[in-house]
Amino acid sequence: MTTIRHYIDGAETGTTDRTLPVYDPATGGAHRQVAAASAQEVEQAIASAKAAQKAWRASSLIKRADVFFRLRQILAERTDELAAIVTSEHGKVLSDAAGEVSRGIENVEFAAGLLHHLKGERAEQVSRGVDVHSVKQPVGVVACITPFNFPVMVPLWMVASAIACGNTVVLKPSEKDPSAAIWLAKAFQEAGLPDGVLNVVNGDKTAVDTLLDSTDVGAISFVGSTPIAKSIYERASANGKRVQALGGAKNHMVVMPDADLDGAAAAAISAAYGSAGERCMAVSVLVAVGDIADDLVDGIRTRIADLRIGAGTDSASEMGPLITREHRDKVESYVKGAAAEGATVIVDGTQKRFEGDGFFTGVSLLDNVRPGMQVYEDEIFGPVLSVVRVETYAEAVELINANAFGNGTAIFTRDGGTARQFEFDIEVGMVGVNVPIPVPVGAFSFGGWKNSLFGDSHIYGPESINFYTRSKVVTTRWPDHTPAQVDLGFPSNH
Ligand code: NAD
Questions:
Q1: Which of 67, 253, 322, 470 has CB atoms 3.0–4.6 Å from 283's, for a disulfide?
Q2: Ligand 1 atom index nearest CA of 228
């Protein structure tokens, strides 16, 4: 059986004293195993990153940019190879995996513009003969801890900008689908990245805790579930590090009575069931405003009967399995308990039968869901769409703003005034207007509010440049030929 190990100082390495199974979710078989790093092995990766940082930081910006241009080419040319690796461990369909690679490429393209992003500021003559300028310098060693659901895109959200800014990195990918991170580290090396600048350690809490407690790690980027994000934020900030910890979500899509109902139904299906609902920007609550609810629910019910669910490698499949058997069972338990909570089960995906032992479930549609029900309050992270019926726009806004999460939301309407008001009113980090999954393009930054993000910085894009650098401000006077004077007063610029 293949063992996925670590990637430290430009080479695959690591003992296999402790391993974890890696499943093919379409068959349910553990087809690989991954080494779980000991604290010592993580320290070795941190030491490698620390040793490489001085020289990487001293390399010219143009040379750094070259790496990203070459990496972009490798990712574009070998997307299918990388997508197949993702599908073999995550289960998502190949076209979805290729889509993830293409969104990750946006972050590499952004990083290639590092010369522009790292430009500082300058003010001349702030006092007589005195100038001030600021520069952005790297934090040092950055640790990146990533979730299972985007094993290529989320590492690239972090690693591309961190490296562009002159940092070196230790990446700890999800133990559930670790192969893509090793592939990425090798691709970076092929693109010309010096050894030690990007290291990958595999494993679990032992590896993460070592990163959080190391005095040699300056910043932590984390993406995962809310309880872990919160604990990572607390522990790393108590250790004096800067932290951005992105958490879970419960994304609402509002459909106004004037919306194109057909378009809204299609968008809701795509956003709720794509990647089996295992996206942090998946739509999990549909808020039907006014008297359109029956037509909307009916439109969704009739269309989802035709969805093709099967192995991600089968080009006919539109949706694959869930990540693990335990997760599939947990998702199904929400659907099974929904009727007792008072929801109307329109489509019960748990009744769908599949051949073999893959972690499949069918898609579920629940109506008359209300706050307070478990299916409404929790992030289910599966192919379950809940419909909440409200009378007015104001009720829809109140519902969303009262929710503990604030990652993404969308409004479907033909009225520009309503859309503008929604943008103004809503307490959520990313908003779509007739766009169900408003993941910002790579030149903007990504982040939620409330329990969807702990820390101050959104991830990738312009905010990542500030997160991965420290600002230094330099005040300069060059001696002229006037006689020097002693003055103990506080220097004034007037
Ligand atoms: P997770 O929180 O279980 O794991 C994320 C990472 O943390 C993994 O690398 C894992 O090994 C590590 N980890 C798990 N338990 C830990 C512990 N006790 N101590 C230290 N480290 C630990 O998340 P997941 O199941 O891999 O991913 C799904 C979650 O991620 C969902 O909640 C989803 O909404 C969220 N997510 C959020 C975003 C976002 O941008 N906000 C993006 C993608 C995924």
A1: 253
A2: 2
Contact by Cβ (8 Å): 149, 277 = no
* SS3 label, residue 133: strand
Q: Does the beta carbon of 228 sit less than 6 angstroms from any atom of ligand 1? A: yes
Ligand 1 neighbourhood includes 430 CB (under 6 angstroms): no
Query: Along the 494 residues of the chain, how does pLDDT read in single tens digits?
Result: 899 999 999 999 999 999 999 999 999 999 999 999 999 999 999 999 999 999 999 999 999 999 999 999 999 999 999 999 999 999 999 999 999 999 999 999 999 999 999 999 999 999 999 999 999 999 999 999 999 999 999 999 999 999 999 999 999 999 999 999 999 999 999 999 999 999 999 999 999 999 999 999 999 999 999 999 999 999 999 999 999 999 999 999 999 999 999 999 999 999 999 999 999 999 999 999 999 999 999 999 999 999 999 999 999 999 999 999 999 999 999 999 999 999 999 999 999 999 999 999 999 999 999 999 999 999 999 999 999 999 999 999 999 999 999 999 999 999 999 999 999 999 999 999 999 999 999 999 999 999 999 999 999 999 999 999 999 999 999 988 778 889 899 888 88
Cα 247 to middle of ligand 1, angstroms? 7
Q: How far is CA 54 from CA 49, 61, 139, 196, in A?
A: 9, 14, 11, 11
- 6, 22, 144, 148: residue to mutate for ligand 1 pocket, most atoms within 8 A of CB: 148
Which residues participate in catalysis according to the annotation?
A: 280
CB 206 within 8 A of CB 39: yes
| Domains of the chain, CATH where assigned | 2-247+452-474 (3.40.605.10), 251-433 (3.40.309.10)
Alpha-helix runs per DSSP H in 305-431: 325-341, 374-377, 393-402, 416-425
Query: For residue 453, which atom of ligand 1 is closest to its CA?
Result: 41
First to last CA, the chain: 73
- Quick one: which atom of ligand 1 is closest to the CA of 150? 43
CA of 113 from ligand 1 middle (Å) equals 29
Distance 327 CA to ligand 1 centre (A): 13
Atom of ligand 1 nearest to the CA of 176: 26
CA-nearest residue, atom 9 of ligand 1: 174
| Tokens 């080419």 found at | 73
